[in-house]
Design a protein that fits this description.
single chain, 144 residues, 26% strand, two-stranded antiparallel ribbon, 4-stranded antiparallel β-sheet
Amino acid sequence: MKKLYVVVLMTVIAACASVQPAAVNAGDRCIRCRRPIGDLRMAAEIVDHLKAPFPFRTAGCLAKYIKGHPGEQLAGVFVTDYRTGHMLAAEDAWFVPTTVTDVSSRRVEQDFLAFRSRSDADSFRAERQPMLRWTQILAEATVN
């Protein structure tokens, strides 16, 4: 019977320790650039060591934030699968470069679309566009 209690207790502890993303809503403000999040299929999120969620407009904005805060303790880094709209861990995603136009400022920016599967990313990308992983996105991010 004691073994059963130990197993149940360990399961509860493991469930509490797992980090899940919170819902990002249209209109939420990006933590880095303070602009509103418009396209939820491009949204991203970090969960800090206290399990508080912080939304980002895009995966590129998230990468720039992380690059600018190298010592910050994070419990989770999530991006939205462009095809399904569901969040997934950034390190599990495949990224395709894209161009985004900010409606309010009319700025055109380079950013990334995230996909859960390599085949989804491959079918979405243009012929010569690269497919990238999260480590490559972080390496190429600039802090500005």
